[in-house]
């Protein structure tokens, strides 16, 4: 502990370049294809690659002067204890798991950036006032089991063991069994529930093109958007494509086309950042010379204001029903996801903004259209989600890419932010 | 031979009812599921069920006083030789094969009706002037191999052995091999090519709802419509459904929806009997939270006037390209089928119409929106295609149905028509 605070010296970008680049490539070898995982990374919850990566990070943390420990769902924490007695912890990190054939940055970057930042602070400024923990969250993507945010959710209490009873992966291995194979869920490690978190700070790749197109280095996220997801079914009547006059048809695909077209028109017209997507369709019987009997499709609507989503959907369905009725087809829909937007901490965002202004780093406020662990922590403690650019917005792909210079911008911001909060 | 023609006595509907009904049920047992094939008939080219059916029909023909013979592609003919020396033949029948899980009437009815009619004429009026042959055409549907109209086409010359080189069924059995297994294609039977056909008359179920809805018993087909079939591809760009603003999207599914909607609007607006159908679509990657990168879909356009089809498609593609360009997606299309309409014989249709007027049977002129063997014969010799109603227009299904009374109407028409042409 220092009696008077030393002014912070942030490492130059050049100083950080190699260690950031090397650690990204190193972590990508766990579950990676090709050199440095350049041909894709597949590191799913409790898999051998996942276990090896957590072990390796545990070793890293210890080498870096942090005290590592697991909780009983497999989250890994590297702790730098502070001098203050209240025991509250600044948590920083991201998720270790990937989608199948994902990239090297999604989740991994946040863990690596947090680790490098905290290691730097420890090496140069010793013990903080406030405790800091770097976290490698066990799971976020839902890529092995039908379960998302297992790491963050178990810590805040929105996830529990009951929710994973009876779920299994594509090979039929149950969640419980997989946990056990990795050494978790057996009471060896402490329960994941936390009540000592001061805040959560997550660096993540944008998975969109806004920063790159607008030429900014950092995105300060104000909200994680709310989203609703529906399954929509249009029912008509199959008939022969040659012998059925147009006026007697009840063509489910024609109606679906009309409905989907309207989604695009209305979403574009909305102009306030709302996004609406139909990404998936199934047509039955899906034969060229048979009029479609039934079409199901997905609808995904997102906006930072839940009321805006509600109004959009309500008006859309009223218009949709008119269209289907006019075409003699029937429409049913089922809402299977309804997540409220989550606001990030304005205080933390402002601190970050001032740091970036001082550093002369270009930045902007923005919303996150994708879900993150930050949305789970965000309803639980002050949370800051900070984006670095994604090249061409590519994500969930081996082609996912962020230049090291941009990754380093994030680390330098985090070093200053953590110093300000903890030292 | 009779010196003076006897006036024709057509059997009463009651007289025909049982034999028509029984023969439909009997033929349906070949390849049929359930009693009388009530749960579906699957009788594909050269299969064991197909062979058994041809054999059984051969026997039937012999018992009925017709001379049976095969040609070398497996068509079966039952001949009633006439007294005239020119050797020209009135051919009447339909196809023996079915689609997978088809019904009892499609094709089978035409064979059965022709057989019953000719057998009646022979029994009561003996030898005709002109030779008549009942034909059970080996194949029409293309349901086992990617080959349609193999029976009629081999007779008229639009099909030949070169076209079936290298094609195989879903199990990998080659066409040649399957032919050989059934005893054909080896020169045992005469070549299928014919140059002695006076005309071709085919009774068939409508496979549409016009006759049933309009309450008529017989449809006199004036044209088999022309048809064009396209494969259309829209290309855009995959992106994250949450993080990609609407204005930056190149959504292949949104464009496809717009294009498909237009097909329906224009076809309905056309109002002249044109039908246009999009029955099949594939979306890539077809994931709910990913903007579609590529969509392919089928387009099927039919009308009795080839020029109408041409103009419709030309105008459609011009408008389509504008739509795609406005949305930043690209459009390509490939025409893989372009069949001209085929006119049926007006002379034969008029004769049929006068017979029906005398019989007091309701009828109408109409086009056929589906392809038939009559379209192959129709460019080769005067041809008459005569429809009986299809209940609810259902076809290519175990639920295909036509009441026996209506089947009998067709037989009574055919008896008079053949008598008029051959006796």
From TrEMBL, chains A, B:
PANTHER family xrefs: ALLANTOATE AMIDOHYDROLASE, ALLANTOATE DEIMINASE-RELATED
Binding site for Zn(2+) 2: 106, 141, 396
A GO molecular-function annotation: allantoate deiminase activity
The species this protein was found in: Paenibacillus agri
Gene for this chain: allC
Name of the featured protein: Allantoate deiminase
CDD domains referenced in this protein's UniProt entry, alphabetically: M20_bAS
Listed Gene3D superfamilies: 3.30.70.360, Zn peptidases
EC class name: hydrolase
């Amino acid at each position: 502990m220092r009696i008077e605070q030393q002014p912070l010296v942030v490492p130059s970008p050049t100083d950080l370049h190699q260690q950031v680049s090397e650690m990204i490539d190193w972590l990508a070898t766990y579950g990676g294809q090709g050199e440095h995982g350049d041909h894709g990374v597949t590191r799913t919850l409790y898999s051998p690659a996942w276990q090896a990566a957590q072990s390796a990070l545990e070793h890293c943390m210890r080498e870096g002067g942090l005290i590592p420990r697991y909780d009983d769902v497999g989250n890994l924490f590297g702790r730098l204890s502070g001098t203050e007695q209240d025991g509250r912890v600044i948590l920083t990190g991201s998720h270790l798991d990937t989608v199948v054939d994902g990239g090297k940055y999604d989740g991994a970057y946040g863990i690596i950036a947090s680790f490098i930042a905290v290691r730097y602070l420890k090496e140069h400024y010793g013990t903080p006032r406030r405790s800091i923990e770097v976290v490698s969250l066990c799971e976020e993507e839902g890529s092995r089991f039908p379960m998302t945010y297992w790491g963050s959710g178990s810590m805040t209490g929105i996830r529990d063991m009951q929710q994973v009873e009876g779920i299994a992966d594509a090979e039929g291995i149950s969640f419980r069994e997989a946990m056990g194979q990795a050494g978790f869920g057996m009471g060896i490690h402490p329960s994941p529930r936390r009540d000592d978190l001061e805040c959560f700070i997550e660096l993540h790749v944008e998975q969109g093109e806004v920063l790159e197109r607008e030429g900014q280095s950092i995105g300060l996220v104000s909200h994680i958007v709310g989203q609703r997801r529906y399954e929509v079914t249009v029912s008509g009547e199959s008939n022969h494509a040659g012998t059925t006059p147009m006026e007697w048809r009840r063509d489910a695909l024609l109606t679906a086309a009309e409905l989907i077209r309207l989604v695009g028109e209305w979403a574009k017209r909305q102009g306030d950042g709302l996004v609406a997507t139909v990404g998936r369709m199934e047509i039955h019987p899906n034969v060229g010379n048979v009029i479609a009997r039934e079409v199901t499709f997905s609808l995904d609507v997102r906006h930072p204001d839940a009321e805006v989503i509600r109004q959009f959907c309500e008006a859309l369905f009223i218009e949709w029903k008119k269209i289907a009725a006019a075409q003699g087809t029937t429409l049913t829909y089922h809402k299977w996801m309804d997540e409220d937007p989550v606001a990030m901490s304005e205080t933390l965002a402002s601190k970050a903004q001032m740091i970036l202004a001082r550093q002369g780093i270009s930045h902007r406020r923005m919303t996150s259209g994708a879900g993150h662990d930050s949305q789970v922590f965000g309803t639980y403690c002050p949370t800051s989600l900070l984006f670095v650019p994604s090249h061409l917005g590519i994500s969930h792909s081996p082609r996912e890419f962020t230049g090291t210079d941009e990754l380093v911008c994030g680390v330098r911001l985090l070093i200053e932010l953590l110093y300000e909060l903890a030292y």
